[in-house]
Amino acid sequence: MLGLVYETLYFANVNDGKYTPWLATGYTWNSDNTVLTLNIRQGVKWNDGQAFSADDVAFTYNLLKQYKAVDNQGVWGFLSDVTAPMRTP
User: Fold this and answer.
1) Rounded to 5 degrees, what are φ and ψ at 12?
2) Is 3 within 8 Å of 11 (Cβ atoms)?
3) How far apart are CA 65 and CA 81, in angstroms?
4) Spatial CB neighbours of 76, under 8 Å, sequence gap ≥ 6
5) How far apart are CA 20 and CA 18, in angstroms?
C-alpha cells in the first residue's frame, strides 16, 4: 500500500531498486553519517487544504515510536530521534 495509496517520502521500486523522490525532494547526510536531513516538497497540501510540512513527517515517525504495533516496517530499529526544524515567524 505504501506508495500506491499512502504517499511516501521516497518511492522504492522493488523491481529495479531505484528510489524516486516523492514527498521529499532530496536529502543530505552530516559528515559522520549519523544525521539525515530530508528536504520536504513545497506546495503539497492535505485533502483539507492545509500545507504539508516537516512537522507532519516528525509527527508521523514519532507516532510510530509511541505505538510500536503500528511500526510494521521496524523503522525505529534504525532511528534514535526524528525532529522538524524550528520555524521562524
Assistant:
1) -100, 120
2) yes
3) 9
4) 64, 65, 68
5) 7
Sign of the alpha-carbon torsion through 35, 60, 73, 8? negative
For residue 55, how many other CB atoms are within 10 A of its CB?
14
How many degrees, rounded to 5, is the angle at CA 49 between CA 47 and CA 50? Answer: 105
CA 48, CA 73: separation in Å to the nearest integer? Answer: 28
- Rounded Cα gap, residues 43 and 41, in angstroms: 7
The answer to whether 14 and 29 are in contact (CB under 8 A) is: no
Can you read off the three cell numbers belonging to residue 18? 531505484
Q: Over the stretch 24-75, which tens digit does the pLDDT of each residue have?
A: 999 999 999 999 999 999 999 999 999 999 999 999 999 999 999 999 989 9
Q: Are 42 and 23 in contact (CB under 8 A)?
A: no
